[in-house]
Amino acid sequence: MIYSREYETMAREDLEQLQVERLQITLNQVYRNVKFFKTLFDDKHIDISEVKSLEDLSRLPLTTKEDLKHSYPYEAFAVPLRDIVRIHSTSGTTGNPIVVGYTKNDLNIWSSLVGRVLSSVGIDNNHLVQIAFDYSQSTGGLGFHYGAEKLGASVIPASGEQILKQIKIMKDYRSSALISTPGYALHIASELEALGIDPHELNLSIGLFGAEPWSEKMRSEIESKLKIKAFDNYGLSEIIGPGVAYECECRCGMHVNEDHFIVEVINPDTLEVLPEGEEGELVFTTVTKQAFPLIRYRTGDISKIIPGSCDCSRTFRRIERVSGRIDDMLIIDGNNIFPSRIEELLFEIEGVEPHFQIILSREKGTTMIELKVEISPDFFSIDEIRRAEDFRKKITNHMSTRLGLRAKITLVEPKSIGRSSGGKVCRVVDLREDNI
Ligand SMILES: [Zn+2]
Q1: How much is the pTM?
Q2: Which of 23, 95, 151, 175 reaches 20 to 30 Å from 71, CA-CA?
Q3: From ligand 1's centre to the CA of 150, what distance in Å?
């Protein structure tokens, strides 16, 4: 279902006009109220009154996570604190987190945008929505919560519960939609299997997943193991949280809520804007946010804009599923390797579980790569060691011919690679001392 048809199916010309008008308002707002942007524009001799088209946007400077960290905690807010009604922050594993604020109007827009995401995947007021995202400082839990409530769905805020409790809730409360990370959905699937619960006993029909990169192969795993239809969506706290981009029933990319966010893709090295269809770093400009507007914010996420229109009648452009992060990129002896690409290739081989670990070490100046791969239970019987050896060679060749990656492959038992409580596998262990 299309939640706000007026905007989601707007003629491109009208939409672009709306974007320009909203952009000009936002530029005035940040120039007047945010010292960081005023200094940035003045230093670069930018006259914001000269921004008259979407093409002019590329003349404005880019902003980064580092810039925002310097504005900790409230320096980048464009309204006084008395107008702020909610404060979230990014996880901030190193140094200060990025603090994001919302006015009442921002929260209203946010829940409507999440409403679009949920409607698009078929969630409505008849659904029981189990949310397994964190409800604390990150935007996932509360973002989806208010969007689902706005639709009139019954929301089960199950975040923070242990996996067995999640499953009990799912079974007893008859949850029909699960919102979580894709990794957590697989974690639930394997626990169901261990408990001997047939997913048909559940009422689950829709899964909405995001917040970490995943592949088509992982989507099919989740769908076949949980007997649901799985959808992707995209968001980040700095821009608003969930609600930035979403899949429709066609599942051929994620529509960006372009009436609120202008999307660009840049070459992360040259910083030039790339044409549609070319992969690079996603950059967003918010055009309706009051409390925490951002101009040309570099997300660090790798994706591309998909050319052409979508069969669902939405006119918002689509971005491809995020394939990795600039900062996750591994540099192995001068080559750039994304763990997500290794994942994709592994999943092309039948018998591999969607869990693996890359261990990097250095011997005599050369990087040694070990790839630990979990094999599916029952794929090998105990006497099939020769078959296991052939299987190992198959993975070795696949990595070498498709990625040029010469790695030692180690087959390990299912569930033997350590998971966090959220079901996430530590993908990379870097034992190289200089860590480059
Ligand atoms: Zn569509």
Answers
A1: 0.82
A2: 23
A3: 22
